[in-house]
Amino acid sequence: MIDLRHSATLLFALALAACSGEDAPADAASDAAVTIFTGGMIYTGLDDAPTAEAVAVADGAIVGVGTRALIEDSAGDNAVIVNLDGAAMFPGFTDAHAHFLGIGMRELTLNLEGVGSIDALVAILAQTIQGAEQGETVYGRGWIETGWPEERMPTRDDLDPASPDNPVIFRRADGHALVANTAALEAAGIDDATPDPDGGRIVRDAAGRATGILVDNAMGLVAALIEAPGEETKRQAYAVASNVYAAYGWTGLHNMSVEPANADMITVLSDDGTVDIRVYNSVDEPGLDALAANGPRASNNGRILTRAVKLYMDGALGSRGALLTEPYSDQPETRGLALMQHEQALELFNRAIAGGVQINTHAIGDEANTLLLDWYGEAFAANPQARDLRWRIEHAQILHTEDIKRFADLSVIASMQPSHAIGDLYFAPDRLGPDRLDGAYAWRSLIDAGAIIAAGSDAPVERGDPLIEFYAAVARRGLDGTQTEDWRPGEAVTRQEALKMFTLWPAYAAFQEQSLGTIAPGKRADFTVFSKDIMTVPATEILTAKPVMTVVDGEIVYRAEE
After folding, report:
1. pLDDT, tens digit, 9 for 90 and up, residues 451-497
2. Where are the beta strands (DSSP E) in 44-176?
3. Distance CA 163, CA 324 (A)
4. Cα–Cα distance measured from residue 519 to residue 506, given in angstroms and rounded to the nearest whole number
5. pLDDT digits (tens, 9 = 90+) for 195-237
6. For the chain, which domains are there?
7. First-to-last CA distance in the chain?
8. Residue pair 431/387 in contact by the 8 Å Cβ criterion
């Protein structure tokens, strides 16, 4: 008979030795500095051994997983015990799509998140303008008009009375539209006759007058009025964002649309201890050639990795910039905006393939997703090895049902944000009509078809709370419990699937599944601890759980106050 106790102790010692790069002496387990996490339910994320009582960590890596008695015996008398005190521990939750700088800047600038009406927005502007210097641009972000009593977007006419002289630019939460007042339009040289730029729209009223609403590439017309954050502000924003995300329970994020120089800054900030969590950078298109020539870049501590490029196919559904095959049901004069064309896309794809670069492309509308799958497939047909580059579609929100299986067939990862569904489904039926909802936010259908979903939040577009995201994935209800047949309740996922969507599958989407995503010996010690067992409590109770502890490389980077 095999002595399981002796066998587990030997495996524990071998894991310790592997962390230190040494041969395993008989007393390795007792000599090494070991921390044991125990005292609550531990979910490993492993199908064959989904739970454990204790996890041992040394040198930032997991060296033992099992029963508390076995782990404590194997670790020896000098182990440090971290008592979970009844909380539930999970593999580190990773936000597979967020904007790191934006998260920090949300905390440092005028935050319009949660504003409940145009009147409230104007009241905030009137208060803010009192502290503004003459001619200074007032900038804020985070408003979203769905659910407002006015049932429309704000316009220049709403903003002008509160700020007739200072330019005002308020960006919508999704980042794909903004409203500017008359002073801002005039300062940017925009009038009723200004033509729409490629991939953008200047929204006009029935008389042809510019309303102040600028969509997608049209926002660039006023970009010069907004002061870009300086280097010190960026460093401060990244530090704040790291702290905010650790306090939410995220051990890492996939950082989208990153200026290449900012990726280097994040690397430095991580190595000096300012940024604690992991960051997987997907740089803007201008960074493609350098990334292809030089290959992936990692920080010295291994927490920051830059190896992908972010592209854009279309805009957002809320601002009607998402590219649809048929016109919008509530605005039939438009089908949305195409931000990339076939020839341009294939040229970029081929450069990426030649350099071994992962491509992550924003696509929301059904036409945008169909075209992107076509173009990915065309690139893969000419270069079959490119399938191994794990290309992604970011958002993949509205799909033709016949395209769902193509994700798995092409080995394309769906990078989706559950909170988008429970926010958008209040207005998506009006935008799309009933039939197109069959392929909207189709998590269940994608998983059933064999696709991998790397889930995230798109913060600061959304709040960025992993508990909201997990709830949205498994409940598919509004935060107030709202759900109708238009929400397609059958597209919800199981809790086991949701756990993979925020742990193992983001690790896979970042080529890190060998070191992250599950709690197993040899992997990095990244853990998320919540006050409640979100795998078993009623769905509504998920939203009442709190982050208790966030651990990266065995280091407790956030711990809730007692």
Report:
1. 999 999 999 999 999 999 999 999 999 999 999 999 999 999 999 99
2. 51-58, 61-66, 80-83, 88-91, 93-98, 110-111, 138-143, 168-172
3. 36
4. 15
5. 999 989 999 999 999 999 999 999 999 999 998 899 999 999 9
6. 1-86+516-562 (2.30.40.10), 104-225 (3.10.310.70), 313-487 (3.20.20.140)
7. 46
8. no
